Amino acid sequence: MNVLRALFATLLVLMTATPLRAEQARYELDPEHITVAFLVDHIGYAKVLGMFRAARGNYSFDEATATLGALRIEVDTQSVFSNFASRDRHLKSADFLNSSEFPRMVFTANGAKRTADRTFEIVGQLELLGRSQPLTLTATWNKSGASPIDKTYTMGVSARGSFKRSAYGMNYAVANGWVGDDVELIIEFEAKRK
Predict the structure, then answer these.
(1) DSSP secondary structure letter of residue 24
(2) Total structural domains in the chain?
(3) pLDDT in tens, 138-189
(4) Which of 106, 146, 166, 173 is placed for a possible disulfide with 179 were both Cys, Cβ 3.0 to 4.6 Å?
(5) pTM for this structure?
């Protein structure tokens, strides 16, 4: 009889127990340790490497379950830099980024698929030139822990992706092949846990 009571009590506890939930921590991208760069073909000779000097973002992540949520990365298009002043002016013009009308490029995602121990596929949306298109990033969770510099809990991530700029209406020099349609994205960042 005592065994039945114990079994019944155990079942009662199991049925009323609160299910475990992921505990996502909030992270802010460290503005001193973020790189958003791109590679684009130039007439087949070589690829131009450019970057954006101003970007910000945040996301939620649970290390125990590797669950990503509410990722948002904003890039100031006016901050584009390719190490050549006249090209940078052209990149900011209506032929390319149209920075005066569209000062932000934004990537958002609400989750990620884990592909290996520390790698993920992040399917999200890239908003550029007033259009939003799907974009998939492959990301590597490099390291997490207390920073040796300021002791804040820090996560490091490397991400890569690509898109066709013509999908956003950025068609300058696509037809004649002078400027490639494919844009390779390079994103490297450290983020601080809040």
Answers:
(1) P
(2) 1
(3) 999 999 999 999 999 999 999 999 999 999 999 999 999 999 999 999 999 9
(4) 173
(5) 0.87
Q: Is 97 helix (H, G, I), strand (E, B) or coil?
A: coil
CA distance 118 to 191: 16
CATH number at residue 95: 2.40.128.110
> Is residue 1 domain-resident?
no
Q: How far apart are CA 189 and CA 57, in angstroms?
A: 10
Please enumerate in sequence order all residues whose Cβ is within 8 A of that of 181, keeping only pairs 6 or more positions apart, or say none.
Answer: 164, 165, 166, 174
Range of the domain at 48: 22-193
With respect to residue 13, please indicate whether it lies within any of the assigned structural domains. no
Q: Is residue 12 part of a domain?
A: no
Please check whether residue 15 lies inside any domain of the structure: no
- Asked if residue 154 lies in contact with residue 191, where contact means CB atoms within 8 angstroms, the answer is yes
Q: How far apart are CA 138 and CA 147, in angstroms?
A: 25
Neighbours of 145 (CB within 10 A): 9
pLDDT in tens, 6-57: 444 444 444 444 344 457 899 999 999 999 999 999 999 999 999 999 999 9
